Amino acid sequence: MVKFEQIKGLIFDLDGVIANTSLYHGQAWHQLADELGVTWTEDLANQLKGVARMDSLNLILKAGGKENDYTEAEKEKLAAKKNENYLGLLDSLSQDDILPGMKEFIEDLSAHHYLVSLASSSKNSPIVLKKLDLAKYFDGKVDPATLTHGKPDPEIYVRGAEVLNLKPEECIGLEDAIAGVKSINGAHETSLGIGDPKILNEADLNFNDTSEVTLENIKKAMD
Known about the structure:
Number of helices: 9
Structural class: alpha/beta
Shape: globular
């Protein structure tokens, strides 16, 4: 692992790292699964964390033994329906949904001149950042529509460093999901997992929750 002094930028996932929007995604997928007659389980919900929209839909269909029941065009309509459900839930989103300590952490990064980018598979991330009044702190964002592969493929985190004009070893990626941690590691960046260390055991650094994520604590963990 690199030294803390080498870090120049941080690359953020959005859902479950910056804000509680992961709950809204889960609710929207749950609604669609119910409509499709697929049993919703905690295991299925965990599989969808950090995974792109179409990949998530395919996981739901597979869980219900329905992976061959729909054409690609029909799948696109189902994914669009989920997105409508999600956007409806976002109407109530506010700064109160920012996870503990994250606003202060992002402000501190700006104050110390670290570059910050967003590597979210959610196409609605610009809307979310605007509602949270955090968009002004981000120097770059990866457009998920331009990606060929979803997490756990490293592409999104490779691009997250590129939009900041930084080398992978100069970046820390923050994730709350296994797929995301694998993506960061594959991009040869320092991975910071937020959540149960037994689940996120491949992360270089681990904090139990967002309130622990500070520059001082990251420095201590890396030195």
